[in-house]
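A note on notation is needed here, since sequence and fold are reported together in a single record. The reader may check this reading against the record printed directly beneath this paragraph.
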Amino acid sequence: MGIPLSVLVTTFNQEANIASCLESVVGWAGQVWVLDSFSTDRTVEIVQRYPVSLKQRPFDDFSSNKNWALDQIPWAHEWVLILDADEVVPEELKREIQGVLQGKGNNRPGFYLNRRVFFLGRWLRHCGWYPNWNLRLFRHRLGRYEKRKVHEHLILQGQAGYLSHDLIHEDRRGLAEWIARHNQFSSLEAQERLAALLGKKGTGFHGNLFGGEVERKRFLKEKVFLRLPAKPLLWFLYLYVIRWGFLDGRAGFHFCLLQGIQEYQVSLKVEELRKREDEG
């Protein structure tokens, strides 16, 4: 039967990861849905080996995909857990979630989960990536994602709590896929940044210097960092030096360097989009 929890896993070409993800929730959660964006690899074939429900929908952006699922899927349970296909729910987190549900959510509308991110086989304990809080467990009627193409946040009615055990995030597809995915992220982020610079978009989630961690990060990102010169270098130094990325060894150096390169890509793409905007 499983506990009274519905799980949503979003996928696109995740044949290397999806089995581990599903094995961590099938038989534990009472309901598991996979929302696939028409994968061209063996993802769907693997998913169909498990007792889960599958829907397919063309990908437009991350928040639209998830909001469509929250609106359209017939959820069997009040509580939903959102997972990426490269994430695994370990046993200690399962027990904690089960305790929360038995306590009827402790009068909370949702909970932040801390992700333990692995890169090149190493847990990144620093680099600004731990702790890595994500609002993933919530009462599905009370939360929808902001209208943002990437790095979207859930807007929840009420004050969320925090769980103490980690969610595991490890992409087994290799470095080439990691780079390709982050190139896609940089294109979507460039569109969001240009809109913010031009004052053309409100996503429904507002940065606040004196708010929680997520609100504070959004404020610093859109009101301060966005207008700084030499952002790629500053971002690398911030992650590698100020956030102690050097303590993560070789993996930490390469991760921080790639983050700086991604920031460089975003900056160039913003310039390109701005030029098109001026010419158009």
User: Anything to note?
Assistant: The mean pLDDT is 93. The CA atoms of residues 210 and 216 lie 7 Å apart. The chain has two domains: 3-169, 175-279.
